[in-house]
Amino acid sequence: MSESTTQPDAPPTDLTWHRVHPVTPVVRGWSVIAVLLVIVGNQTLDGLPAGQNMLAGDGWWQILGGIVVVGLIGLGYSALAWRMTTYAIDDESVRLHTGVLFRQQRKARLDRLQAVDIVQPLVARLFGLAELKLEVAGGSDSGIKLGFLKLDDANHLRAELLARAAGLRVGSAPARTAVPGGGSASGPGEPPAGEMPAEPGAVVGHVDLGAPEAPEQPVMEVPPGRLVWSLVRTVAMIVLVLAVLGLVGVAIGTREIGTLFTALPLVLGVGGYLFGRFTREFNFRSAISPDGIRLRHGLLETRSQTIPPGRVQAIRLTQGLLWRSADWWRVEVNVAGYGLSADGTTNNSVLLPVGTRDEALGAVWLVLPDLGTADPRALLDEALSGIDAGEHFTTAPRRTRVLDPIAWRRNGFTVTGRALVLRRGRLVRRVEIVPHERTQSLGLQQGPWQRRLGVATFAMHSVPGPVTPTVPHLDQHVAGALMDEQARRAREARAHAGPELWMRRDEVAAVVETIEDDDAKTAPYVETAPPAAGAPDDEIGDARE
Amino acid sequence: MTDHAFDLAPAPDQDPAPGQTPATDPAAQAPTGQVPSGPFDPPGVHWQGVSSRLITARLLSVGIFLLVPFVLGAVFALVFSLVWLWIVPAVALVIGIWCVAVVPRQVRAIGYAERDDDLLIRKGVMFRSLVVVPYGRMQYVDVQAGPLARRFRIAQVQLHTASPATDASIDGLEPAEAERLRDRLASRGEARLAGL
Questions:
Q1: What are the structural domain ranges in chain B?
Q2: Is the sign of the CA dihedral B164, B170, B172, B175 positive or negative?
Q3: pLDDT digit string (tens) for A393-418?
Q4: Coiled-coil annotation: which residues (chain B) (predicted)?
Q5: Which H helix or E strand runs over A36?
Q6: Interchain contact, A441 vs B168, CB within 8 Å
Q7: DSSP code of A398?
């Protein structure tokens, strides 16, 4: 990092350091305490001889005392951790200092900001608190988490950070009014919850920084009924139902209840997956603002995401076999920093959990207002449900039906002025869109069978995420030419790409005005064919004609 | 792919990978005499190969790896006079012969080319792959050399982009060439640096 001119131990004195909210230890620690109670409870009850009342003897006091002592130690440590956690922002970066024994100082550059999430776990919602997550492109766990803050403060801070990341100079930046987080009245011992309303205003004190919340225009929302139906129509649900039915059948046949428990892990796993998806994607709403794409969703834990313009690296639209009759699509994106969580589920890479074709195309439009083609609707229709080579798509040759008997007619690609569109899969339809300037590297692979048939698999390498754009079994000369041209197109697109500070681009202002003037909520691809997109300054205007 | 398995661990005792090599490359013995052509040989590209000492280094690491089951199997078979136990050294021997046949061709198939704006890396005999890495997309460059590789005076250069899928490593470079490549890639990357 060439920009880190300051010594790590001597941060610039003009920075205003802030603390997170004093209730944070309680919010973070409640699960530990709950687990402790459950364990102790279980142990005590199991360990008791039959018929003995646990409340009668002296053991009761010991157990209670133990819980209180452990709880106090935990609370004391988290209070200490809270006291050692400070953050500060300046025009170019966010700094976070954490750790009691092992101190960590982290600095994230705002021009590298990939996304900002405000997360409210269930317990934090009870306190009206939220955690601010700043994602930078450093792989998993590389972002900065500021938590917990009061929800209003988190919103203000987000607006502020996005404004600075966009390159806007916030007027009162040098003379910030926030109170430094030094004078905490509650002390490091235990911040009792009752004391919360008294001090936090001064301690957290991160309000009134001068950046207004960017106006936003709602684009679409997913009704709960459709979300439930979409989950019912998944393979996971079928597996679940079949498993339960089979088990009940076996149990009735053998007259032994015990068999029911053998498949409990399966039922719990699949059910947990479905329940998790339901709670994560419940009440899903998306909006567009000058800051980028806004997503809000969640039933128990709510999450409010902001993905600034140009941060989406790749888009994927998926349609399972069971969604086809309703023509539902799921839209996921790759954003650097979001990555994939350890269990493979993505709770923040979803741009649209389930939507009609028009809504899915609207989601694509959020990312790529200008697809760089005269008739984006026709092109995307061909991508979504087309088969064989058509007006736009180049497909795998007929000889590859040996390698891919079902989907060979779908495997194909097309190139537009702004993006490469890849299409594959016939039972599960997939469409992947990668903007030219987001191409990382390109790969071509050929196995022995493919070589005999003169075909090769083309792959685009994107940042970690759910989307892995590939097209299998293209004719090898077509694939080779595609690779060569795509390398050139990516280079040219990068050369003309705007700066990282997106507000310094002229076109964005035009975009926002167009959005605000237009009250139609449907996406442009849905309507009649827009004219040829020529002027780069007014992309959305063109597309939304 | 298969080459990569070798690259990461020049010290054979730490490396479980060479044993897998024949398994992942079963068809590599098929007659594939012709030079790579078509999409894997774009026009106007001058490919550079890697040092032939990589062949020796790889064969040696495979040999050391296979020596253990070979010797143990043979000793136990002799001591306990179990005829069926000769399967173990026999399998080790077959794998070894296979590698002797395959590895030289694999190494000779490795090639790289510096173009004006990107680096091309070509690998594989039967399972071929070609990677194009734009200089402006490089995040960092690694140069690695394990004890065995140092003994043979070869080094590995690996390019990293923001994508974990980018498999861009060149093994078997002369140390001087590895350093030159590293510096050259770094300076070119800086000149063409772009955001994500």
A1: 42-191
A2: negative
A3: 999 999 999 999 999 999 999 999 99
A4: none
A5: helix A24-47
A6: yes
A7: G
**Average model confidence (pLDDT) across chain A:** 78
- B163 — contact with chain A (CB < 8 Å)? yes
Contact A281, A297 (CB under 8 A): yes
Q: At residue A143, does pLDDT exceed 90? A: no
pLDDT at B81: 84
Predicted confidence at residue A58, as pLDDT, reads 66
Size of chain A in residues = 545
Q: Report the residue from B30, B39, B196 with minimal CB separation from A479.
A: B39
- Compute the nearest-CA separation of B135 from chain A (Å): 10
- Residue B151 corresponds to which amino acid? R
Residues B69 and B77: their CA atoms lie apart, in Å, by 12
Residues 16-75 of B with CB under 8 A from A: 27, 30, 38-40, 42
| Residues of chain A with a CB closer than 8 angstroms to some CB in chain B | 111-112, 114, 137, 311, 313, 336, 437-448, 451, 454, 456, 459, 461-464, 468, 476-477, 479-481, 483-484, 487, 490-491, 494, 497, 500
Tens digits of per-residue pLDDT, A60-109?
777 778 878 888 888 888 888 888 899 998 888 899 998 888 888 988 88
Q: Please state, in angstroms and as integers, the Cα–Cα distance from residue A485 to each residue in A151, A284, A391, B42, following that order.
A: 48, 39, 20, 11
The pLDDT, as a whole number, for residue A49 is 53
Confidence of residue A250 (pLDDT cuts 50, 70, 90): confident
**Where do the domains of chain A lie?**
109-172+199-221+283-308, 223-280, 311-321+368-543
Q: Looking at residue A57, what is its pLDDT?
A: 61
Give the closest-approach CA distance of B71 to chain A in angstroms. 35
**Sign (positive or negative) of CA dihedral A278, A280, A282, A287:** negative
The pLDDT score that the predictor gives to residue A503 is 59
